[in-house]
Specification:
This protein has 117 residues and is mainly alpha-helical. The chain is built from 7 helices and 3 strands. It has a single domain, classed as Orthogonal Bundle (Arc Repressor Mutant, subunit A), CATH 1.10.10.10.
C-alpha cells in the first residue's frame, strides 16, 4: 500500500480518535505479555482448554494466563465456554471479532519474516 492510499483510507478516521491515531485503540487492546501469543495459539487451533493453552505458552503462571484470558474475553476477541460435566472443563475460542484479526496477523507475520528474521 502506498502512502497516498494509506492517507486516503484513513482520512476522517483520525478525527474520531482522541490521540489522532486510529490504530492506537487496537494496539492498547492487544498489549500484554501473553495476549498476542494466546491469540496466535487460538488462530492455529480453536477451541483450546486452559491446560492446553498453558502448555503451549510455556512458563506462564495460572494467574497471568487467567488475567490475559479474561481481558481478551472482555474485549470480545475470545469466547469462554464452561462445560459442567465430570470432569468440568472450559474451552476458549476466537469470536468473529477475533477471527477478523487473522489477516492482520498474517500481514504482521510476513512483515516480521521480511524485516526481522
Amino acid at each position: 500500500m502506498a502512502r497516498k492510499d494509506f492517507q486516503d483510507q484513513l482520512r476522517g478516521m483520525s478525527e474520531k480518535q482522541p490521540c489522532g491515531c486510529p490504530a492506537a485503540a487496537a494496539v492498547r487492546m492487544l498489549q500484554g505479555k501473553w495476549k498476542l501469543q494466546l491469540l496466535y495459539e487460538l488462530c492455529v487451533q480453536s477451541p483450546l482448554r486452559f491446560g492446553e493453552l498453558r502448555r503451549k505458552l510455556g512458563n506462564v503462571t495460572n494467574a497471568a494466563l487467567t488475567n490475559a484470558l479474561r481481558e481478551l474475553e472482555a474485549s470480545g476477541l475470545i469466547s469462554r465456554v464452561q462445560y459442567n460435566e465430570i470432569p468440568p472443563h472450559v474451552e476458549y475460542a476466537l469470536t468473529k471479532k477475533g477471527e477478523a484479526l487473522l489477516p492482520v496477523f498474517c500481514e504482521l507475520a510476513e512483515w516480521g519474516r521480511t524485516y526481522l528474521l
